[in-house]
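[audit] Reproducing an earlier prediction to check determinism. Same input, same settings, fresh worker. If the tokens differ from the archived copy the diff job will pick it up downstream; this log only records the rerun itself.
[audit] input (189 residues):
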Amino acid sequence: MIGQQVDRRFGNALASSREQLTRFPFWVRVIAFLVIMGAVILFYGDNYVTAVAISVATYAMLGLGLNIVVGYAGLLDLGYAAFFAIGAYTSALLMTQGHWNFFATLPFAVLFAGTAGAILGYPTLRLRSDYLAIVTLGFGEMTRIAITNWEYAGGPNGVWNIPWPLAFGYELNTQSDFLVVSSACSRSR
């Protein structure tokens, strides 16, 4: 009898809190959850937890872009990582060879990745299903092989000695700094 009353009270309290939460739109609840989790990780997380959170935020940004291509457009793109690599190498090479600021390289990274997408997209405009998947997979592999064999980009070792990003004179060189930047970028989409 007492157990039933406790269960009923707990169930009623849980149902009323669930009703109060559903009054907010889903995206507001998601952003609130992400802000709370980001604050908890930022203030109470160690370096490992923060590094994992940065990886999650990075792949969340990639997943959001892939959701547009595959989810909304219905196109199977298997070379999606190639555009990520083109943007990343553009930014890294401008920072190391041209001595640019990280945030100044971002528009050019977007421009180069977008140009590569337009170059790939124009001839494959009418392809669908398996044919589009094969072409994009081939583009991804060609990009990987070209960057791996390109000595200017460090060859198989990649780009070395990339300077830390500077924002308003502050050097972003800790895991917490990268978590804040990657969280801001993943939430802005």
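[audit] rerun output stored. Observation attached for the diff report: The CA atoms of residues 15 and 23 lie 13 Å apart.
[audit] end
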